[in-house]
Please model this.
Amino acid sequence: MYDYLPQILFTIGFILMALFFYSLFKLRNRLAPMFSLMCLAIAVYVLGYGFELTSADLEQIKFFLKVEYFGASVFPAFWLLLSYKFRYNKPCPFGMRVLIFVIPALTLLITSTNEYHHLYYADITVVEQGRYLLAQLTRGPWYYVFAVYSYIALLFGTFVFFMSWRQASYSFRTQSFWMLLGSVLPALVNFIYLLKVIPSELDLTAFAFLTLAIAYFIALFKYDFLELKEIVRGHAFGQINEGIIVVDEDDRIIDYNNAGQKTFNWLNAYNIGKSIFSFDEGREIRGNAESSFELEISREGRRKFFEFRVTALKEKSRMVGSIYIFQDISKQKQVMDELNHMATHDGLSSIFNRRKLLEEAEKELSRAVRYGGDISILMIDIDRFKQVNDGYGHLAGDKVIHYVAQSCRERLRRTDIIGRYGGEEFAVILPETDRENARIVAEEIRKRIAEIIIRFEASSIKVTISIGVTSVADRHGQITLQELVNEADKALYTAKSSGRNQVSVFQ
Model:
């Protein structure tokens, strides 16, 4: 768990941000405006602390400490205003609101300029704890002023919610109970942190706000506090571009959104209540046990890729269903495939580049050594290539390289490997091929190249190639790839020095 502390904080922060936006723009409720601002303040503090835990040095920690107080300094004030309106069912008077925000405003100013006066933190150092750099804080006088103010605000809110709960005969099925429950743990954890009861510099207050989020979630959805249920559904199901499929514990389709229906035509009102296993694509989706996975679907000769995320729906620890959220990632996959092709292929000849060629050759050689198979290497060089460049220009030379590479590849098997070794030189890896058969392949390639005519502008270009051949033969486990390449190079040199347009086998 400790390895994921920042991620937990970011999750809590984003939940609070979601509550902020929903309550601010979508809901009609007497407490919605102040509740939304309180959620925003807590979210800023929690996210700031999450980034603080990811800091690499003291300067970053100091920066995010300042960010945290853009939320932490005003949270108690919003809490006071929310509690007041909950208790008296009317806004706090203007004069009182001004007084409530005096200390938060001064706190924000003091924390933002702390390095000049050290009123809030007398000193800030760092201490390593596990994988994190934690701030070791020496508190200044204003720290305690703000702490007292914060606890007065929290105690007032807690008292208000308790009295309301008492008036409701201590019923657990009331808004006041869940609001009281949500306020107690953060206050208690912060008090323990303030007293340094736990010998750690880790401030657990931010994590305790998760209980506040859960408690308010229950109040929001189960007891109509902010009446959020239908609005969240309308937003999630009607506006987002991601597809959504909801199934129950018996794998029956119980809901979907417009984006999901556009992707899978079996998502329609007629099929609500039917098992998702009734459909081929549904079986593929439900058959994945991972919390996130990719799915390839072929339609009308086209391949499409979708990324799925799965969230379990639980009620009182009982599994009641699953939500599948998915999006089309076909374009992203295409871009990734293109980038991968660019990283492994030579742009001019459209065959493997040298790095990828040697990587694949090492794999084949290791396989031959392990299982006792044979493997041969051809080194191919275009004869008098400089004369082509000098006589017809470099564009003609580029075309010759491309034609030679493609002609060689057309003769090879699918299991054979060809790549551009450098300049006008190519290498071919022939798995499960002995020296004699490699020589035969080399001769066929040589003849094929000698017969082709390459058209360039008004010219007809003919070229020949020389090929060096070597094989692992019976030297399994006693030869490296570099040694094989050197042998093929020597054979190629022999072919060149013997008049070119020849195949030479290394003996």
Remarks:
- The CA atoms of residues 80 and 156 lie 7 Å apart.
- The first strand starts at residue 121 and ends at 129.
- The chain has a mean pLDDT of 83.
- The radius of gyration is 36 Å.
